[in-house]
Amino acid sequence: MADKPNYITPDGYRRLREEYEALFGTERPQLVETISWAAGNGDRSENGDYIYGRKKLREIDRRIGWLSKRMKNASVVDPAKQPDRSKVFFGAIVTLVDEDDRERVVTLVGEDETDPSAGRIAWTSPIARAIRGAAIGDVRRVTLPAGERELEIVKIEYPG
């Protein structure tokens, strides 16, 4: 994580921040209150509310720590401000066509905001690495688990 930047879009950063605030400001205090109540009920070794609450609190604290670290190391890049819109860079919305004429639209986003089913792929993924810096009409070869594919860039857009 420290050897490469943690690029993220403003929207992706906002979602990380919202999750952090929900966990830290709402869920964690409610859980601490439940644990406190359960601890007051006597024997903690057989108290399900207490045991489950402590386990859940550790999970929340671990997630809060991870979110905090990712936000601290994040480098927010607004794709709408990309000066060179003729090539594929971080945040680009790219329409690709493979050798079987199947069209696919992908958006290059940060690792913390990927959603392959929605076409949001990490800027460090094999496809993204293959097409970064490409212009419309360029053909790039990428090695995927299903084998090698040639992808042609047919459209490049940036939000905003």
TrEMBL record:
Domain Transcription elongation factor GreA/GreB C-terminal: 86-158
Gene Ontology biological process terms from the UniProt entry: DNA-templated transcription elongation; regulation of DNA-templated transcription elongation
Domain of life where this protein originates: Bacteria
Record's keyword terms, sorted: DNA-binding, Elongation factor, Protein biosynthesis, Transcription, Transcription regulation
InterPro entries named in the record: GreA/GreB_C_sf, Tscrpt_elong_fac_GreA/B, Tscrpt_elong_fac_GreA/B_C, Tscrpt_elong_fac_GreA/B_fam, Tscrpt_elong_fac_GreA/B_N, Tscrpt_elong_fac_GreA/B_N_sf, Tscrpt_elong_fac_GreB
Transcription elongation factor GreA/GreB N-terminal domain location: 6-76
One of the record's GO molecular function terms: translation elongation factor activity
Entries under HAMAP family matching the protein: GreA_GreB, GreB
Task of the protein: Necessary for efficient RNA polymerase transcription elongation past template-encoded arresting sites. The arresting sites in DNA have the property of trapping a certain fraction of elongating RNA polymerases that pass through, resulting in locked ternary complexes. Cleavage of the nascent transcript by cleavage factors such as GreA or GreB allows the resumption of elongation from the new 3'terminus. GreB releases sequences of up to 9 nucleotides in length.
Entry-linked PANTHER family: TRANSCRIPTION ELONGATION FACTOR GREA, TRANSCRIPTION ELONGATION FACTOR GREB
Family, similarity comment: Belongs to the GreA/GreB family. GreB subfamily.
Name listed for the protein in its UniProt record: Transcription elongation factor GreB
